[in-house]
Amino acid sequence: MTAERADLAIVGAGPAGLAAAATAAGIGLRVTVLDEQPGPGGQVWRGLERRGGDRAGIDLLRRVRASDAVLRSRTTVVDVGFGGDEPVVTWLDGDRVGRTMARALILAAGAIERTVPFPGWTLPGVMGVGALQTALKSGGLVPDPRDGGLVIAGRGPLVLLYLSQVLAAGGTVSAILDTAAPGRSLATLARRLPAALLGDAAGFVRGAMLLARRALSRVPVHRGVRRLVAEGAERVEAVRFTDAAGDHVLPCSVLGVHDGVVPNTQIGRLLRLDHDWRAGQRCFAPVTDDYGRASRRGVWVAGDGAGIEGAEAAQLAGRLAALDAARVIGVLSEPAFANQAPSLLRRRAGLQMARRFLDALDPPRDPAVELADGTIVCRCEEVTAGEIRSAIAAGAGGPNRAKTATRCGMGACQGRMCGPVLSQIVARETGRPVGEVGALRIRPPLKPVPMGAIAALATGDPFDPEEL
């Protein structure tokens, strides 16, 4: 078993993780970055070294590569705990098991797509738009229209971005099914718009360009879409839906769905960090201060894993977390910290105003409202909404008790996909706030671990910091 020591361990090599690593290494900290993807960049900058692309990402990666930082790709974090007062990260690289003990830990695990179950969503060919975008970025793959066509159903900026990317790659899209809720308050939006424009004018310009590209593409757009159903025998063959004009059926071989993203909180919940329910984004997120410092000493959370704010804000959050960690460790002086942090906070505050406008413009729906009893919620264990409701009626008044009664959340994803929906079903059935209901408890290992790795952990020499 590999054992190493660092001043700062960072989980995640996306915008927040790379920014934190570049900042910390520049100050002089010994940095180890752990990321499970084939290369650095995260979801936003996927394939950064191979494809190039975002200048900010390339610059950050160049700085990290030029430093003494250790960057471990294809490395899966399977457990995080404490050795005394210091964080200890257990990781898996192929068949090799390692542990990194650090004086501080920054969680920059990013976001995951929000799961909103609907009839037929487990059919082959129904995919998250984020997964489709990954296939495009990683391998240049777009759905073949000769197989039946691509329909995109969802809401939010990623739908527009993916449409633009598919068309640029020579692909086609049969239709866009816009599931955004109609009837939003224009007065509320008008009050927030000036501050949002001031905070991120460039972002709104990019959004306007994506809307213009959608209009020029002449791809049919159905607005106010409800009651989505994927139909097919062995795989998706059509999508049925309702809009203001009535009921429709469109043939397709791939149905891309997207309902926004939520923070990846698995490690933070494993560490029992305090989390609260963000009603505007309908997600749990860790409680942090302005610098990302979490409720447990020695732990910071940065980027979309702390709350959805976007790639630029994630970079700022990563820099702030690294500066604060260096200050707490004692490597960065108070005057040096005070010279750098305020400008980062101001810029991030502007981006946060823009994000609040977007949240108000297109709020996510409660997935439990239209969830039919026969719809599968936990695809790993094939648990339906009706089975969950029956367990709640029988006395399972919380997500963890419902998990025990139904096995919802016991599969390979360990509740990443179904856990938030489970909490919202419990809240709706019991008449309690989601924040009071809480989320599933997380236990190690965080990801499936081969038996050989478990044997290495069991038979390897004890992790002794004094030997490092």
UniProtKB/TrEMBL annotation:
Segments forming domain FAD/NAD(P)-binding: 7-317
Keyword entries, A-Z: Oxidoreductase
Coiled coil: none
GO molecular function, one term: oxidoreductase activity
SoxA A3 domain mapped to chain residues: 377-456
Pfam family, one: Pyr_redox_2
InterPro entries reported in the protein's UniProt record: BFD-like_2Fe2S-bd_dom_sf, FAD/NAD-bd_sf, FAD/NAD-binding_dom, Metab_Enz_Cyan_OpOx_G3PDH, Opine_Oxase_asu/HCN_bsu, SoxA_A3
PANTHER family the record matches: ANAEROBIC GLYCEROL-3-PHOSPHATE DEHYDROGENASE SUBUNIT B
Identification of the protein by name: Pyridine nucleotide-disulfide oxidoreductase
Gene source species: Thalassobaculum fulvum
